[in-house]
Amino acid sequence: MVRTEAKDKDFYFPTYQAKWRRLCAVSPVQERSLERTDTDEFILPTGANKTRGRFELAFLTIGGCCMTGAAFGAVNGLRLGLKETQNMAWSKPRNVQILNMVTRQGALWANTLGSLALLYSAFGVIIEKTRGAEDDLNTVAAGTMTGMLYKCTGGLRGVARGGLAGLTLTSLYALYNNWEHMKGSFLQQSL
């Protein structure tokens, strides 16, 4: 196969600038698609909210509580394991005992917080669907009912303590969540 020298040179050894132009060539369609827009990048059904509802947030809540419980339990298990084996020399039995304590405590706390989050999320979704409104009353009611059900094995006194603990924690959360709104309302009333 015989080729002329000029064709070979142009074909096989293009100049750097020509090669760069070919690589960086962008069509008009690509230029429009590469432009930044301030609109949302997802399509919502007609009448849908941009915020997530309780049901969508339930998965995040449950998973987050399980992971938080596992991390807290692992640290607590390490603390307890080191405390219980402080008289032992560093050896395999001591390491195994510490790891067992870390695993046991991590699973215990993950299960506890995950169960509480599951109950809270289920009550929250049920209350929201029943009432047809999403507000802080749902949050406080779900927390109170979660505490009551979680401590129901302790009799009426346990139910009352659990309900009071749930009511207190969710009321504090609702207060924290609406602090800016309440502060603005107080400032308007004082003027």
UniProtKB/TrEMBL annotation:
Origin: domain of life: Eukaryota
Transmembrane segments: 57-78, 108-127
Keyword list, A-Z: Membrane, Mitochondrion, Mitochondrion inner membrane, Protein transport, Translocation, Transmembrane, Transmembrane helix, Transport
Localization (cell): Mitochondrion inner membrane
One Pfam family hit: Tim17
A GO molecular-function annotation: protein transmembrane transporter activity
One GO cellular component term: TIM23 mitochondrial import inner membrane translocase complex
Major location (coarse): mitochondrion
Bilayer topology: Multi-pass membrane protein
UniProt record, GO biological process: protein import into mitochondrial matrix
Subunit structure as annotated in this protein's UniProt entry: Component of the TIM23 complex at least composed of TIMM23, TIMM17 (TIMM17A or TIMM17B) and TIMM50; within this complex, directly interacts with TIMM50. The complex interacts with the TIMM44 component of the PAM complex and with DNAJC15. Upon mitochondrial depolarization, interacts with PINK1; the interaction is required for PINK1 accumulation at the outer mitochondrial membrane, kinase activation by autophosphorylation and PRKN recruitement to mitochondria.
Protein family membership: Belongs to the Tim17/Tim22/Tim23 family.
Role noted for this protein: Essential component of the TIM23 complex, a complex that mediates the translocation of transit peptide-containing proteins across the mitochondrial inner membrane. Has a role in the activation of stress-induced mitophagy by protecting PINK1 from OMA1-mediated degradation and facilitating its accumulation at the outer mitochondrial membrane in response to depolarization.
Protein name stated in the entry: Mitochondrial import inner membrane translocase subunit TIM23
